[in-house]
Design goal:
elongated; mainly alpha; 0% strand
């Protein structure tokens, strides 16, 4: 007998109720959604990502964005491509905060 049924029966006995049929409902939890496959990191891709980050830090955002897009579009599934996509999303959000909606939209559309 399951612990739940035992608890229900015990509560009924204590309350002086007549024994009745107890229906136990089992709940199944759906398995988690599958995660996208991430390819192992490549030393070359890691260097390209670091180079794009350096361009961005040094005030050359267009060169950085082009390198990020090369990673995203040419190496889908690589860890560096996912990180490059995150960095592009950060740039989009920055453009939105600055009121540069046209630039943000252009980047969002290219990311689709």
């Amino acid at each position: 007998m399951s612990a739940l049924r035992e608890e229900v029966e015990l509560q009924r006995e204590l309350a002086g109720e007549a024994e009745e049929q107890v229906t136990v409902v089992e709940v199944t939890v759906a398995p988690p959604a599958p995660q996208p496959r991430v390819e192992p990191s490549s030393p070359v891709l890691a260097r390209l990502l670091r180079m794009a980050d350096a361009y961005r830090r040094s005030g050359a955002p267009y060169q950085a964005m082009e390198m990020y897009f090369e990673l995203v579009e040419g190496h889908d599934g690589a860890a560096e491509a996912l990180m490059a996509r995150d960095r592009l999303m950060d740039i989009c959000e920055q453009y939105e905060r600055e009121g540069k909606m046209r630039q943000a939209r252009s980047l969002y559309e290219r990311l689709l």
